[in-house]
Amino acid sequence: MRTVVDLTHCQGYAQCVFLAPKVFQLHGEEGLLYAPAVPDDQAERVRQAAAACPVQAILLGEEVSVDGR
Amino acid sequence: MDSDTLLARITDYVNRPNPYPLYAELREAGPVVRQADGSYLVGTYHEIAALLHDPRMSVDPRIRGETTHKPPFLRLDDPEHHRLRTLAMRPFGPPHSPGRVDAMRGEIDQLTEELMEPFQAGRQIDIVDDFAYPLPVTVICRLLGVPREDEPLFREWSDAIVASADVRPEEDSTERDEAGDQARSEMGRYLVDLAEKRRGKPSDDLLSAFANEPDPDRRLTQEELAETAVLLLIAGHETTVNLITNGVLTLLRQPEHLDQLRREPDLLPRAVEELLRYEPPVHMRERIPLADIDVAGTTIPEGTSVVLALASGNRDPKRFHEPDRFDPTRPDNQHLGFGSGIHLCYGAPLARIEAQAALGALIPHLGTARLVQDPPPYRQNAMLRGPRHLPIQL
Amino acid sequence: MAGDLRDGRIVIIGASLAGLRAAEALREEGFTGSLTVVGDEPHPPYDRPPLSKQVLLGLVAADSTGLPMRRDPDAEWRLGVRATGLDPLGKRVLLADGESVPYDRVLITTGTRARPWPKAEEAALDGVFTLRTREDAGGLAERLAAGPRRVLVIGGGFTGSEIASACRERGLDVTVAERGPAPLVGALGGTLSKLAAVMQRNHGVDLRTGVTVTTLRGDGSGRFSGAELSDGSRVEADVCVVALGAVRNVEWLADSGLAAGPRGIACDAGCRAFNMYGIVTDDIFVAGDVSRFPHPLFGYQMLSLEHWGNAVEQAEVAAHNMVNPGPLRRPHLALPTFWSTQFGLNIKSVGVPTFSDHVVIAQGSLEARRLAMVYGYQGRVTAAVTVDMAKSLDYYRHLIETAAPFPPPPGAADRAIAADIPVPSDVPDPKGLSHGPTVALTGYLPDRRLTVVQPRG
Ligand SMILES: Cc1cc2nc3c(=O)[nH]c(=O)nc-3n(C[C@H](O)[C@H](O)[C@H](O)COP(=O)(O)OP(=O)(O)OC[C@H]3O[C@@H](n4cnc5c(N)ncnc54)[C@H](O)[C@@H]3O)c2cc1C
Ligand code: HEM
Ligand code: SF4
């Protein structure tokens, strides 16, 4: 599973960091860094983080598979 | 009826079980509705959201001379709010303690299990007293470092403080305010004493972290510590109880969603967000403009009280498709259940984990359960709205 | 009519952020026809912003930033193949492998590439990097992990500053050379660029401003060993990152007759491309970094943005307009929004800071490293930049959208003492900077087309 955060909309509420601290982290007081490739054992937490983001900035999904269709 | 009595009607106890038609009336009359007493009421999503982000909207009661005492950060403006919230965050969340709340999951699950032990089929239980109240209280006690046995003591203080913070436009608040102040200072003293006992003997709780902060620049003064600890203890146990209770109430009223969640437990995190939109524990917050402010064509004068009806914004059809429908799969659910902007709930992640654990564990047992009383009896409080009891038959 | 538009053949050129989001949006909008996405990179769409942040910090691998799909767009992905031309009359996209793909409507999302170091033989030295692709980031991250003596970053724009920040965080010595008076000055103007300079120096960056790098030197065996600067000084380093901004990927359109030039492909507010005579097409659409489009809030000047958020929003508008008839089409009016994290600060911008004559610090302060700066042009709010104060950005967005008077209304609880004293915004001419601006105003409607389109001979 992959994740990407729309950081133009993110307001640094850090709800995602609380709920999935192995995937999301604050850099400084407000900047958000994250691991785009979500390890399987963190998927549930990242789902919770995505649901909790107050500005719904977290997208979860699969990567396009290389062999096309 | 006249829209300038809306706040009085919303806060009238007879409307506690279902204030939502009044919110619809408010949005219809709005976006900004002046009340007979000169205050303003706002009930539409976009206007509320904008005001929650407007740096000219103050929360500080001192600017209207209501008190001279420095309040907790819930009622302070930036930059002081930011300083104290950041300090209070250090032992609780990121960037300093990012894993703290996540690490409480196991303990919360276990507590939930313990509370559910007596829940046998055929029994009648009170969701509030037997489950939704004890869980967050125990959790916040452990987090702060407050002995659980003292609950009767601080419950009384908490009741008085919460009552004093309620909006009741028709009523003289002097007596409530005095009782609230009294309770606040007693509770503050109690919590400062607990913190003092930990000085030099650190334990794994917030009071200890506050008391043992080595850096003098990051140390809370005694007053700040008292205010902050009172805020956390109260906020931590007057709100989550309503979220869990409202969850059970909503699911028993709408068994199709109970079934849905039983079939798809992965939906639970989103269902909790939808609950925060559909039946939020915090219905209103007050703000005071520091300048004349124009909202959707109405000028709200500097210094007047503005009540933001968060629960009404959550049901605004201009923002949410079919807002009166409870829909755990709702996309783009940017509800106002935890507020928004700089005062966005400090404890939200903890409340979410508690509610998910509680509802997740309870749902499989609700198969044949039914409500004994609908609507259930509600608490007096209109701002922190929720059932006082929720008797159900398992 | 609408039924027809939801069917047929759509081809998207450029398989990155804008291309992917457009493909998804086309299906969301009900497009049921055939969809082909052509991309010259061999990878499925991946995200670039982490490349100068998480990846250089060594927190995540360069090849781990693949973008998640919102939904499977059910497209044919032709990856690793370059589009070499567009035949607007025959309605075909020509590919480097000799094939061509017919289309009914085409969307161009070919973005930008890193501006290379101008002297090819110096650029070829081992240890000289640019940063745009996954491969660039992977190679650079590897060098940083190996612990070079010093890293030289040429250009103090956002990317250059983020690279320098990552280096310092990894404990590496780094020199930043910037032709302008301070880092980020081209994007943020004088006041904030001074804060940026202080942050760099406080974090131990050897910041050289007002200088240009004249020569990159090799050690004799083809490895980069240092550089000479215009002030006569020399920097000894093992790694050099050329961060001189971006070049629009438009060369392949040279014979297409489109208004495609160094500032991008001109399109209307509905993302439809202009041809070189300023006549709008109706079957060729543009989105993302490669586009330039008029914006009513900024005097209908043509904006070229290198902003993640713009790529997403413009792709969605383009997709909508590709499958909807005229009256149902939407304009792309989103305000430009940008973020950057560097030296522990979160910098966010809304509006167009360079479209300004004055600024005020409306909240917070430079000393606190936490502030909201508001930009005004001729008495109207046109932009705002926050440093570690992202939660107030929405308020200023609203002021820009409603063309609120500048300076903004007073009353913020944490207003700066200087909130009522606007100072000149001090935005220099982009020509004087090493790095290209990430947002540029590029003159009125496509009347520049005849000067910028230079078909190769
Ligand atoms: C290191 C880095 C850091 C960044 N950080 C930020 C940030 O912090 N905030 C922010 O807002 N933005 C940031 N950006 C900018 C952001 O990544 C871009 O705005 C975004 O990638 C634009 O997407 P796009 O799809 O328009 O173009 P691109 O991502 O450039 O994609 C264009 C694609 O088309 C392909 N292509 C080009 N020509 C052809 C052809 N002829 N045939 C086939 N395919 C072709 C290219 O190879 C590429 O894959 C950053 C960019 C970089 C490189
Ligand atoms: C479901 C449960 C909860 C709900 C619905 C809730 C709701 C809210 C809301 C709406 C606000 C914003 C107030 C405003 O803008 O004026 C707020 C603030 C706050 N909440 Fe909560 N809350 C909950 C649980 C908690 C918990 C568990 C804690 C403590 C651990 C907590 C601590 C706080 C604090 C300290 C603030 C003040 C934040 C600030 O001013 O910066 N809350 N809460
Ligand atoms: S929860 Fe959302 S807004 Fe908050 S930091 Fe994470 S992504 Fe940003």
Give structural notes.
- The complex is a heterotrimer of chains A (69), B (394) and C (457).
- With 69 residues, chain A is an alpha+beta fold.
- Chain A contains 2 helices and 4 strands; from the N terminus they run βαββαβ.
- Chain A has a two-stranded antiparallel ribbon. A two-stranded antiparallel ribbon of chain A has the order 2-3.
- With 394 residues, chain B is of the alpha+beta class.
- Chain B has a single domain (3-393), classed as Cytochrome P450 (Cytochrome p450), CATH 1.10.630.
- Chain B has helices at 6-11, 20-29, 45-52, 80-89, 105-116, 127-132, 134-144, 151-164, 174-198, 206-211, 222-238, 240-253, 255-263, 268-278, 310-313, 348-362, and strands at 32-34, 40-42, 57-58, 124-126, 285-289, 293-295, 298-300, 306-308, 370-371, 391-393.
- Chain B has a 5-stranded mixed β-sheet with strand order 1-2-8-5-3, sandwiched between helices. A 3-stranded antiparallel β-sheet of chain B has the order 4-10-9.
- In chain B, a hairpin with a 5-residue loop joins β1 (32-34) and β2.
- The mean pLDDT of chain B is 94.
- Chain C is of the alpha/beta class.
- In chain C, 19% of the residues lie in helices and 31% in strands.
- Chain C is built from 10 helices and 30 strands.
- In chain C, α2 links the parallel β1 (9-13) and β2 (34-39).
- The longest helix of chain C is centred in the C-terminal third of the chain and has 15 residues, at 308-322.
- Chain C starts with a helix and ends in a 5-residue tail after the last helix.
- The chains are: A alpha+beta (69), B alpha+beta (394), C alpha/beta (457).
- Chains in contact: A-B, A-C, B-C.
- The interface between A and C is large, with 33 and 47 residues.
- The structure holds flavin-adenine dinucleotide, protoporphyrin IX containing FE and iron/sulfur cluster (SF4).
- Protoporphyrin IX containing FE (HEM) binds at residues 59, 73-74, 85, 140, 231-232, 235-236, 239-240, 243, 280-282, 285, 337-339, 343, 345-347, 350-351 of chain B.
- Residues 5, 10-16, 32, 53-55, 57-58 of chain A line the site of iron/sulfur cluster.
